[in-house]
């Protein structure tokens, strides 16, 4: 997305629920994270490989970054497979890469970039590469994908006879391929509802509405609606003179992680404000604790050995890199095959998660069983 889109497709899940959020967000800087930069490199690599393939070259990804190479290869293979299938069903099917998609008919000034479009007279497919692996992204009801698809329909429907559209998210690092299929008519009906909301959101009208969509809203550290939403279960809990009831405890546990994230975000925001010279009542900025550090470790080691200390006393034992670093180095598949038989999955202590979580529920009925699970770490 361009930096100046007020109603961006990637934030549409938020402004479609909280209409004024898009305008409010304009007041806060948009920070680029290291993850976003990594995603940009991954997209560039995918684009280059798919263009080479489309021009008759090899669809093999070339990169020094083993993990990225493996992930993008998986994305490219999926796209190539989809395109090959489309050609079998409809020989004139086309593959478009990094297409500018204008959906301003539905959302004021709305535009974006479609990573890959596969078009035939039967169906239009919009594919989106998600390089992140922190959160599994579903294509079901995904407003970003629907807006991209509306832009693609707008540009292509006069040349083709398709009446269906498929929106596919490919998240290769966690093996997620998620699709939603709709008729063009149904998608346009959804688009008309989104259009009404987009007009209000563009004007900054409507009431703020808090929910899960607030997690990455740039206003979240100062938004009173979000603060009320976050603190509601705690306020209720503190009003209770007697023991908390199970449903109240559940409500707090379900929100605990979000509340912790929100508190950390506010602490960071307050620190940045103070470092900008803004005084916050009851708080002051002080120097962090100082840590003494060796400037030249080789020189220090020489002096310690000269003084009679043994190498095993002054050096840490060598240890393997973490799994994350080793995956980056070798790629996940190669690492699996290199270390075959030498890896195990250790189970962690039981965790309390929302009922919507995909993992099956543990059937533990007796206290003794629960204790043994904790003790063995099963
Ligand atoms: S934090 Fe939530 S409620 Fe507040 S403006 Fe953002 S999306 Fe709306």
3D architecture notes:
Strands 1-2-3-4-5 form a five-stranded mixed beta sheet, sandwiched between helices. Helix 7 packs across helix 8 and helix 11 (323-330) packs across helix 12 (332-338). By secondary structure, the chain is α+β, with helices and mostly antiparallel strands. 46% of the residues lie in helices and 11% in strands. The mean pLDDT is 89. It contains 13 helices and five strands. 24% of the residues are buried. The chain starts with 11 loop residues before the first helix and ends with a helix. Among the domains are: 12-207, Lambda Exonuclease, Chain A, CATH 3.90.320; 220-275, no CATH class. Strand 1 and strand 2 (111-119) form a beta hairpin. The chain has helices spanning 12-15, 21-25, 34-54, 66-89, 143-156, 184-203, 224-239, 246-275, 297-306, 311-314, 323-330, 332-338, 367-376, and strands at residues 94-102, 111-119, 123-129, 164-171, 176-183. Bound molecules: iron/sulfur cluster (SF4). Iron/sulfur cluster (SF4) is lined by residues 14, 18, 21, 24, 208-210, 213-214, 217, 219-220, 223, 225-226. Residues 14, 18, 21, 24, 208-210, 213-214, 217, 219-220, 223, 225-226 line the site of iron/sulfur cluster (SF4).
């Amino acid at each position: 997305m361009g930096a100046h889109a007020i109603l961006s497709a990637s934030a549409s899940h938020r402004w479609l629920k909280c209409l004024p959020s898009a305008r409010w967000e304009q007041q806060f800087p948009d920070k680029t994270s290291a993850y976003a930069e990594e995603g940009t490199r991954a997209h560039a690599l995918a684009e280059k490989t798919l263009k080479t393939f489309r021009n008759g070259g090899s669809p093999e990804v070339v990169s020094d970054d083993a993990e990225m190479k493996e992930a993008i290869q998986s994305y490219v293979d999926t796209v190539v497979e989809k395109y090959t299938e489309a050609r079998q069903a409809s020989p004139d099917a086309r593959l478009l890469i990094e297409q500018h998609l204008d959906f301003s008919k539905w959302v004021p000034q709305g535009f974006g970039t479609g990573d890959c479009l596969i078009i035939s007279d039967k169906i239009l497919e919009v594919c989106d590469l998600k390089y992140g692996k922190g959160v599994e992204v579903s294509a079901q009801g995904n407003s970003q994908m629907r807006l991209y698809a509306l832009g693609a329909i707008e540009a292509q429907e006069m040349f083709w006879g398709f009446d269906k559209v498929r929106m596919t998210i490919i998240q290769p690092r966690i093996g997620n391929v998620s699709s939603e299929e709709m008729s063009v008519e149904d998608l346009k009906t959804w688009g008309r509802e989104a259009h009404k909301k987009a007009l209000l959101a563009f004007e900054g009208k409507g009431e703020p509405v808090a929910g899960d969509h607030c997690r990455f809203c740039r206003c979240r550290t100062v938004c009173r609606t979000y603060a009320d939403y976050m603190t509601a279960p705690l306020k209720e809990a503190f009003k209770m003179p007697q023991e908390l009831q199970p449903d109240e405890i559940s409500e707090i546990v379900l929100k605990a992680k979000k509340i912790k994230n929100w508190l950390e975000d506010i602490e960071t925001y307050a620190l940045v404000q103070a470092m900008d010279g803004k005084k916050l009542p009851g708080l002051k900025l002080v120097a962090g604790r100082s840590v003494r550090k060796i400037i030249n470790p080789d020189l220090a080691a020489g002096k310690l050995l000269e003084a009679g200390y043994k190498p095993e006393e002054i050096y840490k034992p060598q240890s393997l890199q973490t799994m994350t670093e080793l995956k980056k180095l070798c790629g996940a598949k190669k690492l699996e095959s290199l270390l075959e038989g030498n890896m195990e999955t250790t189970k962690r202590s039981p965790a309390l998660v929302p009922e919507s979580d995909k993992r099956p529920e543990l059937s533990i009925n007796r206290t003794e069983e629960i204790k043994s699970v904790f003790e063995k770490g099963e």
